[in-house]
Amino acid sequence: MEAAETGRAAVADRLLTSSLRTSYDPTVEIDWDAPHTPGAYWLPPQRSSLYGTPLWEQLSEEQRVELTKHEVASAASAGLWFETILMQMLIREYYRADPTSRQAQYSLTEVADECRHSIMFGRLIEAMGCPVYRASTVDHHLGRFLKATASGPRMYAAILIAEEILDAFQREIMADESLQPLIRMVSRIHVVEEARHVRFAREELAAAVAATGPVGMAYARLLVGRAAYTIANRLVHPDVYAAVGIPPAVGRAAARANPHWRATLRWSAARVHANLAEVGLVAGPGRLLWARAGLI
Ligand SMILES: [Fe+2]
Ligand SMILES: [Fe+2]
C-alpha cells in the first residue's frame, strides 16, 4: 500500500472505532412525546430568514416562534432529502470498492448513521406538527442525476457542502439553552455523528482531487457550484412563510434582500467554502453560482 492509501485507511479505522463508542439511536434516545417548551424558539431568532425585516416586525412573538419551527422543518426536510441522495452515492461507490478495506467499511457505517438520521428528521417533522417541505421538481431531478452519476470530487464535495452548512446551524442550536430541548437534542446527535462524516469526506476528497485531471476538475467545479446553489436555495422552502400568513413569494423576496439572512448564509458556508476553494473546487463559472446563492 502507498503512504497516502495507508493514511486514508488509518483515518477510516479511527472513525470506525469512534462510531462504536458514540452512535445514537434517536428512536430510543429522544423522548418524542415530551411537551414542547411554551415560547421557546426552534432556531436562534437572529438566524430566521426574515429576522430584522419589516415583515418580522409585524409578526407577533408567537408567530416568530412558529416561523422558526417551520424553518427547522424545512431544513430537516432538505437534510433528509440530501441524506437519501448521499446514501445512494455511497452505496454506488461501495459497489466497486474492496469490501475488506477500512474505507469501504466506514462508508457502510456512514450509510447506517444516515439511515438513523433520516428516521430522526422524519420523527422531528412529525413531532413539530409541520408538513414535509419537499424539493421542487427541478431540484428533485437534479438530485436524481447527482445520485445516479456523481463520484470522486463531485460526490465528496456535494456531501461536504450539505453536511457543513447544516452543521453550522446545528452547532449553534445545541449550545443555545434558550431553544426548544427537542431541536437541541436532535442537533447534538447529528453534530457528533456528522463530525466523522466530514472528516472522512475531506480525506476522500483530497485523494479524489489528486486523481482527477483538468477536464474532470472543470466539470466538478460547475457541478459543485450548482449543488451549493441548490442547497442554499432549498434551506428555507418558500411555503414556510404561509404558516405565519405571509405569501410565499413575498417572504422569499424579503429573505433574499435581507442583509441579516445573507450574512447568515455566508457564515454557514464559510468553512466548507474555504476547504473547497483550497483544493481548487471553487473557481470559474461554478464560483458564480456560489455568489448567486449568496454563499460568498
Ligand atoms: Fe446525517
Ligand atoms: Fe452525514
UniProtKB/TrEMBL annotation:
InterPro entries: AurF/CmlI, Ferritin-like_SF, RNR-like
Lineage: Bacteria, Bacillati, Actinomycetota, Actinomycetes, Micromonosporales
GO molecular function: oxidoreductase activity
Organism superkingdom: Bacteria
Protein name as catalogued: Diiron oxygenase
